[in-house]
Amino acid sequence: MKFLFPILLIFTMTTANAVATANAAPDNSTQKKIFSSRDKVMPALVHIQPVIKNYATGEMEKQAVVGSGVIIHADGYVVTNYHVAGKAERIICTLADKEIVQATYIGGDPMTDISVIKLDLSNYKNKINIAEFGDSDSVQVGQYVMALGSPLSLSRSISFGVISTKDRYFSSNVRLPSGERTGRYNLWLQTDAAINPGNSGGPLVNLDGKIIGINSRAQTFANNIGFAIPINVVKAVVAEIIDHKKVIRSWIGLHCQPLQELEEYFGTNVNSGVLISSIDPGSPAEKSFLKAGDIILELDGQSVSARFVEEVPFFYNIIAQYKPGSEISLKVLRNDETFNFEVLTKQLGDLQGEDFESKEWGFTVKEITRQMQVDHQLDDTHGVLVIGVKNVGVADKGGLRRQDVISKVNDTEVLNFEEFIATYNALTIEKVEKIMLTINRSGAIRHVLLDITKEEGNDKDE
Amino acid sequence: MNKKILFLIAFLTISFGSFQISSAQSFDFEKLEKIVSEVSVIINMKVEYSFGAHTNEQEERYLGSVVSEDGLVLYNGFTLSGDNPISALTGMNVKTTTSEITVTFLDGTEYPAEFVGVDRFSKIGFIKIKADDHKFKALKFISEKKYKVGDWVALYMLLPEYVQPPLSADVGMISTLIETPEEFPLIVGFNTLQMTSVLFDENLNALGVLGQLSDPSQSNTDQAGMIESFGSFGMPLLGLITENRIAKMIANPPEKGKTDRGWLGITLQALTTEMAEFWNLDITGGIIINDIASNSPAAKAGLDVGDIIFEVNGQTVEVNKEEKVPIFQRKIAEMGPSAAVEFTILKRTDDKVDTTKVLATLEKTPMTATDSPEYENEELEFTVRDLVFSDYLYHNLDAESFAGVVVSELKSGGVAEIEGLRYGDIIQRISDQEVTSVGEVEVVMDELVEQKVAEIIFFVWRNQKTLFVNVKTDF
Hints:
The structure holds two protein chains of two kinds. Chain A is built from eleven helices and 29 strands. Chain A is an alpha+beta fold. Chain A has four domains: 42-119, Thrombin, subunit H, CATH 2.40.10; 131-244, Beta Barrel (Thrombin, subunit H), CATH 2.40.10.10; 250-347, PDZ domain (Pdz3 Domain, Roll), CATH 2.30.42.10; 355-459, PDZ domain (Pdz3 Domain). In chain A, strands 23, 24, 25, 26, 27, 28 and 29 form a seven-stranded antiparallel sheet that branches. A six-stranded antiparallel barrel of chain A has the order 1-3-4-7-6-5. The model of chain A is unreliable at 1-23 and 458-462 (pLDDT under 50). By secondary structure, chain B is α+β, with helices and mostly antiparallel strands. Chain B folds into three domains: 2-251, Thrombin, subunit H (Beta Barrel), CATH 2.40.10.120; 262-364, Pdz3 Domain; 374-472, Pdz3 Domain. Chain B contains ten helices and 29 strands. Chain B has helices spanning 2-21, 29-39, 85-90, 243-251, 273-278, 297-301, 325-335, 389-394, 415-418, 438-450, and strands spanning 40-51, 54-66, 72-76, 95-105, 110-118, 124-129, 152-158, 167-178, 184-188, 198-200, 206-213, 215-221, 227-231, 237-242, 262-263, 266-270, 287-292, 308-312, 315-316, 340-348, 353-361, 363-364, 374-377, 382-386, 405-410, 426-430, 433-434, 455-462, 465-472. In chain B, strands 23, 24, 25, 26, 27, 28 and 29 form a seven-stranded antiparallel sheet that branches. In chain B, strands 1-2-3-6-5-4 form a six-stranded antiparallel beta barrel. In chain B, strands 16, 17, 18, 19, 20 and 21 form a six-stranded antiparallel sheet that branches. The longest helix of chain B has 20 residues, at 2-21. Chain B is flat and about 75 Å long. Classes of the chains: A alpha+beta, B alpha+beta. At the A-B interface, strand 17 and strand 29 of A face helix 5, strand 17, strand 28 and strand 29 of B.
């Protein structure tokens, strides 16, 4: 008896599948639309092979990756994912006509996982094709869509499906492979058009041949649960990247939580107000005396609300779009009374700093940005963050670990990334053999002695 | 099933061991058995092991020895040592709860008993017989004995429940006298199933109990430099836990909730030989003070960050690599609270090195995560514990301004878990009332249960951020 149910279930699913397949077989007009859409976008599809630098092992390692992209401008601008081409040093692109051209990295935005590269068309004899942006707000759940790209590096592939949902929310705790938090400011289109690794950065298109999203992630161990960044988000981000190489956002350092289940407790009306759940230490919000539990009713005179989690990114985005340094006026409900608060926004700044390989010392470091300071609970942005320690290298033997913050090299204070590089270069040129690092680990200082003479390669020189 | 296999292996080892050494010793086992029978008890207890939301209850049986007239009994507390305060901070610990403890003397008299605690270093467990004013015959250990390689020792172990009589004798031989990391007469011929059995010499004097030497480099130490235990990986080195260590425990048993170990309050690091060389110091080892807890004994004594301790009470600190740091930490822990300790330190300034002596009075180790008091709310099926010193360090919280209680257990599928509370959440407010201790939580929860409120709003700290969790009740 116990086994009956699962068997029935499989049976039902198989039958349903068969029926669905029969019903979903495109009729002639749909098939025509698919062909016409394909012909509009396919010529603008790009197979991208960037070489990115990986510093996680304590050494700078070059890594060839594969992704997809689409040409969106006659000057050769291609939009793709930040996790495909972000900070890439060499980018090889294969166009739809199989011609290979080089591209350069223009800029990117880890928050929305979008980057822009530019094709070098000086030696390209043909004329490039451009795909058009559609409107992601008017997308409907159930609407037919196609995903174009290079799944598992198989270039020029199309998969077909529908929009499964158009307001999928992911918590902003998700991180890109390079470590940046992502997804705080947008929702996602979910589709059952197959999206595999390699599809990243490729277009999700409607049957009018217009781009409605940029494919960027998929659920592992699932059948066809893929996600694309809505094109209306992409349009704004791309424009900023082409102008400034990055997206400039305002930051006040507050985190919000949907009010749905807390309306009675806070005594608010349905669809009224945004609940502040947490405030970053040292942030403009804290300096303006905002508190967790405050409910923002109005922002510069406009009513705001976030009853459901899907409404939270939209609210974050309203603040982000202010010019850094703007004063925002918030009408806030606290203990049944309303107050007005003025908050001076700051620029969000880079989520992550630059990387550097201290080759002779056997570790890699990262510049500490203000967002990293908040993330890692550091007192300030001084020093450099260790992001990789080479196995059985000099630093490993000395006891250095990932996440340590180097504050001193010998007796020289390391205030920032540039100073660290300068000190490293000076000591390396002088061939200093023993170096004492002063580091901060979990709030306490420690000493790490680097004995360069112990390095295997150096033994031979003696 | 596993237990049976273990016993089989034990028997093989025992018979093999006895066979090898049977000709070399001369114990009067008839007499010894009489001595042992008078002070031995068979302990039965229920132990609940929980990991996260998973729990498993088991009946366990041990051989115990009465060591005080008022009924203190020592036994092998190893299985209860999963209660690791360091991993409790991260939620990776196995929590153990004992219940229904009884002791049965070999003549059949039975008493109820209660759990006292486990010594974290030796894993010796203690229970106390509940028998009002009854005076028990207690085992007396002899002190100040000199040991030498080749000395014979004997013990009794508990046989499985289906065997009568319950006890079986075994002999072993002292094979070497280990000096570091601690003085420990190593014994061959025994196995780990005999741990905490009382060891006797050929004159039938009780010497101590069978214990294990652990690797200090595998120790559990938290950010505050509070050492909790040495590791027990690799080949077990069995030997004699001597009277002087046991006597301290009997005089002051390691009670759950009581942290009577010495504490200096420093974050520390080994001064390696290479570092001493780099700084041109005349010493070959020591302890570098990297941080000092505010109001700690170290702070009160005037120790400074950067100081190097190279002598404790005139004895050289032989710590020249990181793996040896726990030996120093354990020494401090075992000196006990209120011990006055003289530290000889080096102070390094830009161009000179000064030597000074600093007198510090140790204090009690701050409450640990597993020792801190708990409160279980049965209606919402969650348990909280007080926030302890190590939590503040582990999460980098400000002790002056931050308060709350930590969610230490959630019933799988229970109300609190389903409604969104998480293990490790620090609850700061419950429906508008600030809570800073489990006592306060109990008062607030009692009130809310009595009022039969439909929802309770917990304001919690999780992953460096705060949030509100609405728990719908069905009172």
